[in-house]
Write a structure and sequence with these properties.
Length: 500
């Protein structure tokens, strides 16, 4: 039942008499909180904040609202993000990092405190509409070698008790986002969870089912293409392919459907074939690898959105698309680890400064993305290699610059890969200069760098100008105020000298 219907019933019951009406109101309120919220698929986004150039959270929330994005997934419970989401009516999934699971699994005091600080504090009138808490992020990933395996269920049980203590256990649902490597099969219909996960997955899906929570999975056809030279490129998209997969009477024309139905089959083997499924992450990067570019990202994401919103479903779930789909991601994150690949910093549908990378119809009312407004940039100046200097000893400076800033667009297949040796040096220098908030000394590099007011961008290779943050603005304001104070001190001192 939706909220307007609940309000209507509450209003009708208030017209009843005495204590009986009060008791009925309480029952209906509980019912409204626990009843299903509808099965219509919705498009949301992942909002990651691992960036050297962070937009103000209020600017990001304005960006979400301008694009009518009503669902957002966070990877932690960042207080600045949650404060900015107050009163926005955007439905939120907050996250608990994997390294916190051990503490929650062994202590209800720890889970109680976290819930009070990060959930019940915000779920108030005109507060944050927190609908989900993601307990860990892909904790069963093969590369973790089972290090979080024993913590997941105890943490879930303790957190569920903590939510119950603040009367939110029926409204805020606990979920565990899983990577698609949790299950495997040669064909979708043969899908099964990895043998070592069978026991815990049985416990997990039973818990999710008992509490009305969906199964959250992250699906990345890009990674399948990136990781295997034998993977047919057409099969990663939604435009049709000559490499279809035939599974009995079912025919799969794209990797997303095949992966989704492999999970459906795995859930069915555990007796939960009808469990609702949410796609926690899915997307396509735009830089940092040969197959990561603007054209491919646009084709994939637009095809995905059209496919999901068509409600066509999949062979194992015809007419039954995922409950929700969270695109990965909202913004580029230049400070993310590049261990999986240099593309990791370029998943955003918007660049770090909230500017749309390509036209995309989210199916939410606007035919294309709307850019962030009122973005505060640093001055239009860049740091480049001084063409008059001998650059033969520049290697150590480039290593320093790229170890601090983001140079992943220079990698093979990146948008700045073909700008030449001097271009590479200038790009590295400027990336460092912008991260250092254009501090004058940060463009020195032993005299090899120089500041220019002419944009050195070349073709698709964009030389960035950083954005100001609240902290940098405050620092700038303090520096400006200090300068004024010192000017007045000097003036007063000179006047005093003159008078005496």
């Amino acid at each position: 039942m939706n909220e307007p219907a609940c309000r209507g019933i509450r209003a009708a019951i208030k017209m009843s008499a005495g204590g009986r009406a009060t008791r009925l109101v309480c029952l209906v309120v509980i019912w409204c909180l626990t009843c299903p919220r509808g099965a219509e698929a919705a498009i949301g986004v992942n909002w990651g904040i691992l960036s050297f150039h962070k937009l103000k959270p209020s600017t990001v929330v304005d960006l979400l609202q301008a694009n009518k994005i009503s669902k957002v997934k966070l990877f932690d419970a960042d207080p600045d993000c949650l404060e900015a989401l107050m009163g926005s009516k955007i439905q939120v999934m907050v996250g608990i990092p994997n390294d916190m699971l051990a503490g929650f699994s062994s202590s209800t005091d720890a889970s109680d405190l976290w819930v009070r600080r990060n959930v019940s504090r915000y779920v108030v009138k005109n507060g944050v509409d927190i609908r989900y808490v993601a307990v860990g992020n892909e904790p069963f990933l093969t590369s973790y070698s089972g290090q979080y395996l024993s913590y997941v269920m105890p943490a879930l049980l303790n957190l569920q008790q903590s939510l119950a203590k603040v009367n939110l256990a029926s409204y805020v649902k606990l979920v565990v986002p899983c990577n698609a490597d949790a299950y495997e099969a040669a064909l979708p219909s043969e899908g099964a969870f990895r043998p070592e996960l069978t026991e815990i997955m049985t416990q997990l899906v039973s818990f999710l089912n008992s509490n009305g929570s969906p199964f959250v999975v992250n699906i990345y056809p890009f990674l399948s293409l990136y990781g295997s030279s034998d993977f047919p490129q057409e099969y990663a998209f939604f435009e049709g392919t000559s490499h279809s997969v035939t599974d009995g009477s079912a025919v799969y024309n794209n990797a997303f459907d095949g992966n989704f139905d492999t999970l459906v089959a795995a859930l069915s083997k555990l007796g939960y074939g009808q469990m609702p499924i949410v796609i926690g992450e899915v997307g396509w990067p735009t830089d940092g690898a040969t197959s990561a570019n603007l054209t491919a990202a646009k084709i994939f994401n637009q095809g995905l959105i059209k496919h999901v919103l068509s409600n066509k479903g999949t062979p194992l779930r015809p007419g039954g698309p995922p409950m929700d789909v969270y695109l990965f991601g909202l913004l580029d994150e230049g400070a993310k680890s590049t261990l999986p690949g240099t593309f990791e910093r370029h998943w955003g549908i918007f660049s770090f400064d909230g500017q749309a990378k390509y036209p995309l119809n989210l199916g939410l009312g606007s035919s294309q993305l709307i850019n962030a407004r009122n973005v505060e940039y640093l001055p239009s100046r860049w740091c480049v290699a001084d063409p008059a200097r001998d650059l033969s000893g520049v290697e150590s400076h480039m290593k320093l610059a790229c170890s601090v800033a983001d140079c992943t667009t220079l990698s093979y297949g990146g948008s700045c890969n073909g700008i030449g040796a001097k271009g590479n040096i200038s790009y590295a220098f400027n990336s460092y200069y912008q991260v250092q908030m254009q501090n004058e000394q940060s463009c020195d590099f032993d005299g090899l760098g120089m500041v220019t007011f002419l944009d050195p961008s070349m073709g698709e290779c964009r030389f960035l100008v950083g954005v100001t943050t609240s902290s940098s603005t405050s620092i700038s304001h303090l520096q400006h105020s200090s300068a004024i104070v010192w000017i007045w001190i000097l003036i007063s001192w000179r006047v005093w000298i003159f008078v005496t």
